[in-house]
Specification:
The protein is of the alpha+beta class. Helices cover 39% and strands 12% of the residues.
């Protein structure tokens, strides 16, 4: 199991605390430093069953500068969104846990973290 975190994020810190309290075996990826490639983002999206715009933090300054709210949200624009996430990792929703069964969850709640641990 791997968790993508930003240590400055309270939701990320909470997820890590819960994983530790439950004795989970996991790896931490500080995705702002160890930036995911477009292929890794595609893989996580497939595991999540989501589209890139569904894991994009559209309120971030980078999102506003890029005008993401105006971008199309369709198959033709998918790669453009993935490229933006790879070039601006701060836009990626966090934390994301990749579970052992090949799925992933956006673990913003204790329930979602526990769900990932049970997979």
């Amino acid at each position: 199991m791997e968790i993508w975190i930003n240590p400055a994020c309270s939701k990320c810190r909470g997820a890590v605390r819960l994983l530790d309290a439950e004795g989970a075996d996991y790896t931490v990826r500080r995705y702002l430093e160890d930036v995911p490639s477009p292929d890794e983002i595609r893989d996580v999206l497939d595991r999540l069953g989501l589209e890139p715009w569904e894991i994009t933090r559209t309120q971030e300054a980078d999102a506003k500068e890029l005008g993401l709210k105006e971008w199309p949200r369709d198959a033709d624009a998918r790669e453009r969104w993935i490229t933006a996430l790879a070039e601006h990792p701060k836009l990626i929703q966090r934390p994301i846990i990749t579970a052992e069964d090949g799925t992933a969850v956006v673990a913003r709640t204790d329930e979602a973290v526990r769900d990932a641990m049970g997979r």
